[in-house]
Amino acid sequence: MRVLLVTPEAYPLAKTGGLGDFSAGLIKALARLGVDARILMPAYPEALAQIRETAAIQDIIALPHGGLAALWYGAMPDSGLPLWLVDVPALFDRPGGLYQDLQGRDWADNGVRFGTLSYVGSELAQGFMRHEWVPDIVHLNDWQAAMTAVFLRLSGNAAPPTLFTIHNMAFQGLFPRETLEQLELPDRLFTPTEIEYYGNVSYLKAGLLYADRLVTVSPTYAREVLAAEFGFGFDGLLRERVPDLLGILNGIDDEVWDPSRDDLIVEPYDVDSLDKKRACKSNLRYIFNLDPDDDRPVISFVSRLTHQKMADVLEDLIPLLIDRGAQVTVVGRGEPEIQSKLITLQTRYAGSLGVEVGYNEELAHRAIAGSDMLLAPARFEPCGLTQMYAMRYGTLPIVTNVGGLAETVIDASPETVRHGTATGFLAQERSLEGLSWACLRALSYYTVPGAWRSIQRTAMASDFSWTRSARQYLTLYKTLVGGIGSPPMAD
Ligand code: ADP
User: Fold this and answer.
1) Inter-residue contact 63 to 88 (CB < 8 Å)
2) pLDDT of residue 9
3) For ligand 1, which residues put their CB under 6 angstroms from it?
């Protein structure tokens, strides 16, 4: 089975969030199942730098807008698995983020940038390259890869089936009508029954319409997106595609996120040496200049600072938590207003609050290892990975009862603690009140060491490894290759 995974991110080459972890974790797990899965992603400078030494340019491709793309073939730096990078310096070699400039504004040409990635994906899928490898399945991820399905369908050639994983319905890839012309796509696509969405082209809509199968990153989210609240305008379209829609819960990379062999933390530990977690906690306090008071619980927030992740609520929640004796650390970046409010708050609560505005992989590991609780709420959450990382590190998650969060965290109650099934704390309401209540419950369990240790043990024993999810993807690939009309499993 040959799978081409078209994606804008893959850890450690380039990552802004869970999609980067997903791409790397899935191909590793598929490789273990004997699947030849290869990533195709843009040659961002940081990605190219990590593979260039051992890679070679395998092809030069003429692009619809007149430019040329060099196709680098190389290996992932950690797993050694093969991949391609699409090198178009005018589109991908620039200072700033993957999608935004240094000021946090979306690159104006994102439509052409990721349309180009998708075009190259379609060329590879049709076997137009100078090498032998042709995929059996083309697996697309988010709006950045979605147009591959359109290019393939319009080519009129026999092409492998496509599967589209939706990592977040809120990211819709909206671009002006001219983008179609820039990609040499017909203007007739610009209608509401095609890929127009209220005056723009929507790449997300293109994926939802043109891919053969649709997957969301948790079964709960697959149900939620059928309603207006979570469908972000596409719930109607998704309801029409229910027979082709499936939820597969993401796994986590248990080599990268393993407290017993994590090089990024100061003291490795496991479920039998949980006392060593204290060294990680001291280190976290040291990094953030927090008062060295061993009795105080540390609650961390490691996430994008956005409305989705309820980061706007932190301003009111943090003082409350500190008032109840906790120390808090925040590692994140996102909406400028939230960032500046948190920085101001840090001055007021020096010794009790540490804030790092930015993207810092090492600090993310240290915060998750060094805290007692991870605050990982969301107003909507397709899957969420950090709550699963936290559980693996014996750091109990405090989350909202939505999407993948609801599916992965078992709320602590007298009953679940007694039965040894509790793994964290769920807020029923997605509001300041709901979250405060869940945090206060967590803080009160923290004062009962026996109960706390028991929840930690259960959390650390939870199995979120990729193997199960990769098997589900493999079953789906096989169904698609076999041309069977209905999805392989219902959730
Ligand atoms: P999403 O993809 O919606 O942002 P997930 O929980 O699925 O949320 O994945 C987030 C990933 O990004 C995790 O690996 C998390 O550790 C990482 N992450 C988020 N913010 C930061 C940050 N500021 N620094 C380092 N890693 C971060």
Assistant:
1) yes
2) 98
3) 17-18, 21, 302-304, 331-333, 359-361, 364, 383-386
Cα–Cα distance, 54 to 76 (Å, whole number): 10
Query: Which DSSP state fits 427?
Result: E
71 alpha carbon – ligand 1 mean position (Å): 29
For residue 373, pLDDT beyond 60: yes
Tokens of 54: 């051992």
- The residue-averaged pLDDT of 248-260 equals 95
Computed from CA positions of residues 366, 279, 257, 417, in that sequence, does the dihedral angle turn out positive or negative? negative
- Residues 6+ positions from 340 with CB-CB distance below 8 Å: none
**From ligand 1's centre to the CA of 20, what distance in Å?**
9
Q: Is the pLDDT of residue 487 over 70?
A: no
Res. 104 pLDDT band, cuts 50 70 90:
confident
Q: Are strands 200-202 and 174-175 parallel, antiparallel or unpaired?
A: antiparallel
How many other C-beta atoms can be found within 10 angstroms of the C-beta atom of residue 341? 18
d(CA 47, CA 441): 43
Q: Is the pLDDT of residue 449 over 90?
A: yes
Tens of pLDDT, residues 385-426: 999 999 999 999 999 999 999 999 999 999 999 999 999 999
Q: What is the pTM of this model?
A: 0.94
Q: Using a pLDDT cut of 70, give the percent of the chain over it.
A: 98
3-state helix, strand, coil in the chain (%, to 5): 45, 20, 40
Ligand 1 probe mutation, 16, 257, 258, 304, most atoms within 8 A of CB: 304
Using CA positions, which residue lies closest to atom 26 of ligand 1? 361
- 52 confidence band (pLDDT: 50, 70, 90): confident
**Cβ neighbours of residue 425 under 8 Å, at least 6 residues apart?**
373, 396, 397, 398, 399, 409, 411, 412, 438, 439, 441, 442, 445
Written as six digits, the tokens of 85 are 């990078």
Give dist(CA 261, CA 271) in Å, integer.
13
**455 and 413 Cβ atoms separated by less than 8 Å:** no
Nearest CA to 478 out of 153, 124, 35 is that of 35
| Ligand 1 centroid – CA 304 distance (Å) | 6
**Whether residue 485 has pLDDT greater than 60:** no
